[in-house]
Amino acid sequence: MKYYIIAGEASGDLHGSNLMRGLYLQDPGADIRFWGGVLMDAVYREHQSGTGLVRDYREGAVMGFWEVLLKGGTLLRNVRLCREDILRWKPDVVILIDYPGFNFKIAEFAHKAGFKVFYYIAPKVWASREKRIRKLKAYVDKLFIVFPFEEPYFAAKGVPYVYKGNPLVDAIDRSPSMAEPRSAFLERTALEDRPMIALLAGSRSMEIKNMMPVLMDFADAWHAAHPDFVFVVAGAPGRSPEDYAGFVGARDYVKVVFGETYGVLRHAQAAVINSGTASLEAALIGTPQVVGYRVNPLSAVIMLRLVKVKFISLANLIIHRLAFKELLQDNLTAGRLMEEVNALVYDSAYRNAMLSDYAQVRNLLGGTGASEAVAGAMVQSLQEGKRV
C-alpha cells in the first residue's frame, strides 16, 4: 500500500521514522512518500530506492502565533505543494503527525478529495483551541494518541481513538546511547571528563534565538561559581553550528555537539530544556531538569488567553503535578536557573524525589513496542477497508 506521511518538526521526524520502520515490518510492500527529515529519510533509504522525501521540515517549521503570521506565505506555498503532490501520487492513506497548523489544512483537503486520513500524535486540543475537535471528527478517519491522559479526554469528546503506548519509550530504550560507557561517549564527542550540564534550546530557529541568550547568561554565572563544570549544548536535528556560534562566542566552557542528544542527557548531572519532546526524553532517561520557555511577547499574550492546561511539560501533565520546575517568559532568568540547577545537582532529596516521579511517568506510558503496534493497527484498518 501507499503511505503519504507528513511530519513538520524534529519530534515528528523521530516518531515518523519509528512509524515507518513499523509500516515496513507490518507491510513488506509498503511504498512511502513523506515530508520529514533526516531520520525518516534514513529509514526510507534502508527499504526503498529513489527519493521519498518531498520537503525537509527545516524549510517550514515555525513557532508562536506572531511567527506564523510572519511566515504565512511560505506555509501557504507548502500547503499548495503538498495538495498537488498528494493528488499526483494517489496514496492509500495520508498520515499526519502532530504539526496541526499545517496538517489540519491537509486533513480537510485530503478528506474532501476522497483519501483516507490518519492522525498520529493528536493535536493538543486538550491544551488550547478545543474547537479543532470538530475538524478531527469531520476530516480524520482514525486518531492515534500517545499519552494516557488523552484517553479519558477524547472519550468524553466522542472522538474515536487508538492508544498503543508512547513511541518515545522505544526510541530511548533501543538507542545505543543508553548502553554506551561514558568513556566511549566522551572520546567520540571530544568532551573532557568533567561534571556536565546539558542545555537544550529547542529545535526551531526561533526557539534557539529566544533561549540561547538566557542560557549563556546562566552558563556565565554558574561557571564563575563552579569552574569545574562544562556546559554541553545538544545541537538540534537539522540545525548547524552557525545556529549556536554567535551565542556561544569564545566561551571555552560551553561545547556544542550534534547527533548526541540522548548521550548528552544521560551523562549530564542536570539539564535546562526548552519545553517539548526533549523534556519528556530527559524524564525517561532519568536526567534531573528544569524547563524554560520563551516566545515573542505578542505570542505569549495570545497563548496565555488560549492555553488551558496547568503545565506545559508533558511529563508534568502525565502525572498531574510538577515533577520539575517550569520557568516561563520573564521567570526564565539566569538567577532562577542558578537556584534550580543548584538544587538539582547538590540537593539529593530534591533530586531523588524527581527521579521517583520520573519512574511514575515511565510506568504510565507503558512498555516498548508502541511504534510497531500503531503501524500494525494502521495496516489492519486499511486492509479491512479494502475488504469492505
Task: Walk me through what this model shows.
The chain is α/β, with parallel strands linked by helices. The protein folds into 2 domains: 2-167 and 368-387, Rossmann fold, CATH 3.40.50; 175-365, 3-Layer(aba) Sandwich (Rossmann fold), CATH 3.40.50. The protein is built from 18 helices and 13 strands. It has helices at 10-26, 38-47, 65-70, 72-89, 100-112, 133-139, 150-157, 167-173, 182-189, 205-225, 242-248, 261-267, 277-285, 297-306, 314-319, 334-346, 348-365, 370-387; strands at 2-7, 31-36, 53-56, 93-97, 116-120, 142-145, 161-163, 196-200, 230-235, 254-258, 270-274, 289-293, 326-328. Helix 13 (277-285) links the parallel strand 11 and strand 12 (289-293).
